[in-house]
Amino acid sequence: MKKMNILFTCDSNYVMPLSVCLTSLFENNAKNDISVYVLHSGFEGKDERSLADMASKYGQKINLIRVNGSYFAEAPALRWSKETYYRLLISELLPKDLDRLLYLDMDMVINKPLNDLYDIDLGECSLGASCEKLDHSAIRRRVGLDAKGLYFQAGVLLFDVKKTRKVLSYDSAMEVIRSLGKNLLIVDQDVINVLFDGKIKLIDKKFNNFDITNFDHSNVERFFNHTDGKELDETYIFHYSCSKPWNNMFSGACENLWYKYLKLSPYADLYEKKFNTLKYRMFRTGIMKLFFYKYIDVTPFINKMSAKMLSPKLYDSFKKFYRKNVK
Questions:
Q1: Number of domains in the chain
Q2: Range of the domain at 95
Q3: Are residues 198 and 91 in the same domain?
Q4: Any long-range contacts for 31-34 (C-beta under 8 Å, 24+ apart)?
Q5: Which of 19, 135, 215, 301 has fewest C-beta within 10 Å?
Q6: Residues forming a β-bridge with 153
Q7: What angle do CA 147, 212, 226 make, to 5 degrees?
Q8: What is the tens place of the pLDDT at every residue in 20-70?
Q9: pTM beyond cutoff 0.85
Q10: What is the pLDDT of residues 104-118, one digit of tens each?
């Protein structure tokens, strides 16, 4: 039995997706001894009990750590929530005796045991991550790095904790945030790429596959919700990094895999009440996904204009309404 330390960050709006992700983790790693750490900004009592009961059901451990609101109070959240920065608090808030730690975004499902990922030899690197499919040179120049090199995706991060703590602290993260100013666009991901430039080992896409879950309107098979069987079989972690399968306007692929773990989670009744209805079956057709795919392109503009035009209180109400009824 392998001992694993897994980290998530979350706010109260995303307890359900976190529960689905944890269900997939526990279902596929029954032979491993897992300690889960969740850095959060505040859960309701019923959510804490639900998460604790689920971990106990699988014979695993979950540690809920509430983060003081003063952390990253000055950092721009942009289109993300402030909780996305919490993965940068490893040195401050996690046990000092950790040697290895795997961070996972909660918009994922784990479909295989994670031993092969957790055991990757990082060599002299501080962490392992997969790559974004973007113009690496342009992004690296934006954050003040040499154009030659890679820009990494922060959804799956395998940390050598001792090496990480020599570089990453709350103060060092805030220093990068302040120095980048308006050039900070992908928040904590930019910070990680700057702090650990040259110290990140590239890991295989199968451990963080965010291509297979995205709807590709130029691909006929994706238009009919079909995906490559070989790639499906080989993928360990399905990352719904763009459109989310629990959102009303989902434009991605592989939602049936997410439903599989939803139905095994404490939110199983949500499948029958929402996603198994005729309305949502229609939403999941290729034609509707093509429309939603285009809609997603304008959401950052909507968010930016709303932030400018509305008072902070009204903007917060708008975001809550949007998350519940539109997104």
A1: 2
A2: 3-207
A3: yes
A4: 31/1, 31/2, 31/113, 32/1, 32/2, 32/3, 32/4, 32/113, 32/114, 32/115, 33/1, 33/2, 33/3, 33/4, 33/60, 34/4, 34/5, 34/6, 34/60, 34/61
A5: 301
A6: 130
A7: 150
A8: 999 999 999 999 999 999 999 988 899 999 999 999 999 999 999 999 999
A9: yes
A10: 999 999 999 999 999
